[in-house]
Amino acid sequence: MGTLSESVTRAATQTPRPKPFYATLWVQVLFAMAVAVALGYFSPARAIAMKPLGDAFIRLISMIITLIIFCTVVSGIAGMESLKKVGRVGGMALIYFEIVSTVALLIGLVIGNVVRPGSGFNVDPRTLDAKAVADYAGQAKAQSVTEFLMHIIPTTVVDAFAKGDILEVLLISILFGFALSAVGSRSKPLIDFFDALSVAVFGVVNILMKFAPLGAFGAMAFTVGKYGIASLGPLIKLIGTFWITSVLFVLTVLGAIARVAGFSIVKFLLYIKEEVLLVLATSSSETALPTLMEKMEKLGCSKPLVGLVVPTGYTFNTDGTSLYMTLAALFVAQATNTHLTLLQQLTIFAVAVLTSKGASGVQGAAFIALVGTLSVIPTIPVAGMALILGIDRFMSMFRALVNMIGNGVATIVVARWEGELETKALSQRLEPSSVDRG
Q1: What is the DSSP letter of 187?
Q2: Shortest CA distance to 174 belongs to which of 96, 78, 88?
Q3: Domain ranges of the chain
Q4: Helices in 184-264 by DSSP H: which ranges?
Q5: Whose CA, among 120, 210, 343, 350, lies 20 to 30 Å from 428?
Q6: 368-406: buried (b, 16+ CB within 10 Å) or exposed (e) per residue?
């Protein structure tokens, strides 16, 4: 009997065995991506047929994104000590978003002028397929400042959730959170309900993430099978320039910000490796939103702050999109031998400051925003966008990735500024042993 009690005691006190490496999500996603690339290369037709797997996974995550944003933003605002603190946190976050994304726009502009990825193409705009860009141009015309601001306001509350529009849901969530905070103690039952609902929603996310390798496989197989590695040849300079610029931006600009905030960007990237691989495979930063929020809380950022900053950042903190927009705009001008004066380049930059904020984590949104940006400079043929339409999927991989990483860094930075960060938890989670466990 005593032996049995001792065995039970030992079993209860033993630490759980770590998962074998092949059972971890990031290994499974990486393996799925490798198989997808091979399938896309050797059997393009079969690879293209895998597209529904990727689309289905993205839709599974997208169907609960608005619910996650609503619950977390409402709980985040209502959980703050005061409305004054909510305003301060939101204001500091928006200032940070604007500064860093503006730096990204400037870097894209500088790299475009220095590297000149479009030089040597000598494309006659009249030979391009303008119809291929026509649909995007039609959508981009509505991206004026007034239309953008009006678009934030939904027709009805239900309509915002039905369409899955993040900006509209964000506005409703902020208003609802402010209202609950103003009511005070009488709103506690409702706040508790949203807290409990958010736990249930993230439970659903954990279930859905089991299918992440399948989703990554389908999305990556389609990309390689549809466009092929060979199709990158003529535009490899643009793709390579953007990818290298994105990596350098993360390691230098975000790396410097991370160092000032007291953590290593490399260790942070290892900590979110599952999200990194998932975004690369699906070309959408939305697929990583739920798990990124969970990991930010585990890093020591307070739940209210995470609930307020992360969803807001997905709309307003678009570092990768900013890099892409100015670099791609100069590429189109250079490829069509369109000379741009300094004033015209600064005009593109100024317009992109606004239009980039409308390009969230959804695939294709940045392309539409870029078409709208180019429309303000009549000398640039918008039909030139047809040059990069075919390889936009490859561009969007790193575009979405930088957006996601920048959002994570921003959350930690704002949390430190506001004293809402447990530095001990941050250092412990970013240790190599903790990073390996994910």
Answers
A1: G
A2: 78
A3: 24-437
A4: 188-208, 212-227, 236-248, 255-261
A5: 210
A6: bbbbbbbbebeebbbbbbbbbeebbbbbbbbbbbbbbbb
Task: Find out whether 56 and 218 touch, Cβ atoms under 8 Å.
Answer: yes
Token code pair at residue 32: 């799925």
Residue 399: closest CA among 328, 307, 293, 294:
328
Which residues, at least 6 apart from 401, have a Cβ–Cβ distance to it below 8 Å?
A: 246, 276, 279, 280, 285, 320
pLDDT digits (tens, 9 = 90+) for 289-314: 888 988 998 998 888 888 888 888 88
Measuring CA to CA, how many Å separate 305 from each of 175, 343, 349, 438? 16, 40, 31, 22
- Which residues share a beta bridge with 301? 421
SS3 246: helix
Q: What is the DSSP letter of 263?
A: S
Q: Which residue has the tokens 């092929």?
A: 228
Give the gyration radius of the chain's Cα atoms: 23
Asked if 198 contacts 297 with a C-beta cutoff of 8 angstroms, the reply is no
In 229-264, alpha helices (H): 236-248, 255-261
CATH architecture of 24-437: Orthogonal Bundle (1.10)
In whole angstroms, give the CA distance from residue 12 to residue 307: 35
What's the number of CA atoms in the CB half-sphere (13 Å) around residue 348? 32
Find tokens 């706040």 and name the residue: 191
Length of the chain: 438
Q: How many CB atoms lie within 10 A of CB 193?
A: 12
pLDDT digits (tens, 9 = 90+) for 332-391: 888 888 888 888 888 888 888 777 765 554 455 666 677 767 767 777 776 677 777 767
Mind giving me the DSSP string for 109-155?
HHHHHHH-TTTT----GGGS-THHHHHHHHHHTT-SHHHHHHHHS-S
234 neighbors 254 (Cβ within 8 angstroms): no
**Phi, psi angles (nearest 5°) of residue 80:** -70, 155
pLDDT < 50 regions, the chain: 1-2, 4-5, 8-9, 11-13, 15, 142-143, 361-362
Taking alpha carbons only, the member of 319, 351, 340 closest to residue 119 is: 340
Number of H helices, E strands in the chain: 24, 0
Nearest residue to 278 via CA among 174, 423, 401: 401
